[in-house]
Design a protein that fits this description.
There is one protein chain. This protein has about 600 residues and is an alpha/beta fold. The chain contains 18 helices and 20 strands. The strands form five sheets. Strands 3, 4, 8, 9, 10, 11, 19 and 20 form an eight-stranded mixed sheet that branches. Strands 13, 14, 15, 16 and 17 form a five-stranded antiparallel sheet that branches. It has a three-stranded antiparallel sheet with strand order 5-7-6. α5 packs parallel to α9.
Length: about 600
């Protein structure tokens, strides 16, 4: 049983009764006076009351009921201010370097950031540190874990039915919802955050595929066996081999499935962590996560799946025989309601943003930032434990070595795999720059003052030019024409750093890293300008969680399937082992999301 070691935070549901000012329970006349002054006047509701010739709630509330997605309010915003895309265009035309409306998250809901009856806030600042001009609000409102045990005996206000409930709207949940709806089954996807995408949206690397047409066109030999061997190598042979085999064998089908939606990925000719063959597929448009979610989101909308954001699952329901029968949902505005379903799929992601849970197993990580999405609290573990699920290896936490200092932004590992190196504040390399994540991250923590810089040149930047340009725009990158100039700018010993680069260039020329045994040496870092980004280690993801079988059924303490309960994505433990092979998670979202759907819809 997962112990309660999380902070208790219970959020009250907003009132939605007919004829009321929804958050306060006021009629229109009373609302006019309440929102004219005091704290309410600082919110958007107060602002709209003040500027209206005839102040009325109906300026924003065009219907008597507010949905959890709040799309009816969004439509009112768009009517006056223009669409999300139009707002982004206005920001660019005004010369704004950073525009929340043109951001990579593809937030198309105004109410994600702008609250009518509460302080607005910049959702972007859950990862970034932008100093945005946020009217009627503040820079950031943190998302904190909740204790779901308080809903153990809660009573719903209504009940509905469906075929399959998917809990979590990241990459795995989206894949499961698309597959379910496409095959003619009623699917409800529930996401507690105000946007879908989860941590998948923040992925910067690529998608591992063996036997792809891109590999064949490049003359690269690969196989499921080699893929599994490499995955086991990175995972220290602690992986669930059967799940790895499913991943490897089905990876080309997953790529084809994505390409049929209109997606396009190129093969990265580099290899990661000493693995045997180039198999990571990436997008030249920027981060793999935001690109894939954008493509999949369109297909999700076409599929007919019922997608609900601001909808947190707070309990899995079961009958007297232990069969899962559905879920209890807390809607942002609609309160508690029950959905009865033939099957439930958990795709709730990691616990990487649950500091209490992480530091329970790793006190040395206390206070460390996380690159996971802000709602990664381990909800799936809390939900599954009361119905008997086995939860293992919560100590398996991945330290990601590529976080831009001062933020929680995960940089793409492609700058290292394609030739970049890491140096400490003494201007020297200190480890195999292309080692698996946990090994490299642990080494970074041991460096003086934990100061580390990612160093690359124009030849490396050209391989990810759009991404490099984005990092420049975000202010991460320091540029210089010579090693001495770059060292001076970032505070490294000039001659030591210059000599280190000269020595590394010799290693590349001789194709042998005599210091740390790096096998892949594609660039000598002596072409054009040099670039430096200060990077820090951070919690990149978690590798423990639920146990599943090859049918994605969630297993109990005795290793038996819990009837009607399935899981996919990062909520599942075991399959990554002790370290995650970069690029496998993106592939696994599609492979296991689809498999979970197929098994759940076959469930009678």
């Amino acid at each position: 049983m997962l112990k309660k070691i999380i902070e208790t935070t219970i959020l009250a549901a907003s009132l939605t009764a007919s004829g009321l000012c929804f958050a306060e329970g006021l009629d229109a006349a009373s609302a006019q006076s309440v929102y004219a002054s005091g704290k309410h006047a600082d919110y958007l509701a107060g602002y709209h009351q003040r500027i209206g010739a005839t102040p009325q709630c109906s300026v924003c509330h065009t219907t008597e009921k507010v949905s959890d997605t709040q799309s009816e309010i969004d439509s009112s915003c768009i009517k006056c201010h223009g669409s999300y895309e139009q707002m982004g265009g206005k920001d660019k035309a005004a010369g704004k370097n950073i525009s929340a409306h043109a951001g990579h998250l593809s937030i198309n809901s105004c109410t994600t950031c702008h609250g009518g009856h509460e302080a607005s806030f910049a959702y972007c600042n859950n990862c970034h540190i932008f100093n945005m001009d946020m009217k009627f609000g503040r820079q950031k409102i943190p998302y904190v874990p909740q204790d779901l045990d308080v809903y153990k005996d809660a009573v719903p206000n209504r009940t509905e039915t469906t075929d399959v409930v998917i809990v979590g709207g990241g990459g795995a949940g989206i894949a499961a919802a698309i597959e379910t709806a496409r095959n003619g089954h009623k699917a409800v996807l529930l996401e507690k955050m105000p946007i879908i995408g989860g941590s998948s949206l923040l992925s910067t690397g690529g998608m591992n595929v063996q036997g792809s047409h891109q590999q064949k066109e490049a003359g690269i030999q690969d196989s499921p066996e080699l893929f599994v061997k490499d995955t086991l190598k990175v995972g220290k042979n602690k992986n669930n081999i059967e799940l790895n085999e499913i991943l490897a064998v089905n990876s080309p089908k997953a790529l084809s499935w994505f390409e049929e939606m209109g997606g396009h990925l190129d093969l990265d000719k580099g290899v990661y962590g000493g693995c045997s063959a180039p198999r990571m597929h990436f997008t030249k448009s920027g981060g793999i996560g935001r690109y894939m979610i954008a493509v999949m989101k369109k297909e999700l909308e076409k599929s007919g799946a019922d997608v609900r954001v601001n909808s947190q699952v707070v309990r899995i329901n079961k009958d007297a025989n232990g069969n899962v029968t559905g879920v209890l949902v807390k809607g942002k505005n609609s309160g508690l309601y029950e959905i009865k379903a033939k099957s439930v799929i958990l795709a709730t992601g990691s616990y990487a943003n649950n500091g209490a849970l992480v530091s329970k197993y790793h006190p040395e990580f206390f206070g460390m930032v996380s690159s996971a999405q802000p709602g990664s609290h381990g909800d799936g573990l809390q939900l599954a434990a009361p119905v008997g699920a086995k939860i293992t290896h919560l100590e398996r936490v991945q330290v990601h070595p590529n976080i831009a200092a001062g933020t929680s932004i995960m940089l793409t590992l492609a700058f290292r795999t394609n030739g970049g190196i890491l140096v400490n504040n003494q201007g020297k390399r200190f480890f195999n720059d292309n080692a698996p994540r946990n090994e490299l991250g642990a080494s970074m923590l041991r460096q003086p003052a934990q100061k580390v810089w990612l160093i690359y040149d124009d030849a490396v930047a050209a391989k990810r030019q759009k991404v490099h340009n984005g990092y420049v725009r975000l202010g991460f990158v320091t540029e210089a024409a010579t090693p001495e100039e770059l060292a001076k700018k970032v505070g490294l010993p000039e001659q030591v750093f210059a000599q280190e680069l000269k020595k590394y260039a010799e290693f590349v020329k001789n194709n042998k890293d005599e210091d740390f045994g790096r096998k892949e040496l594609p660039e000598a870092l002596n072409k054009g300008n040099l670039y430096a980004i200060e990077v820090i280690p951070a919690i990149g993801g978690t590798l423990g969680g639920l146990n599943i079988n090859t049918k994605t059924q969630v297993l109990d303490e005795k290793g038996k399937p819990i009837p009607n309960l399935f899981a996919c994505g990062e909520v599942v433990g075991e399959w990554h082992g002790e370290d995650r092979y970069g690029g496998n998670a993106v592939t696994g979202n599609i492979v296991f999301g689809r498999l979970a759907s197929q098994q759940a819809t076959a469930n009678k």
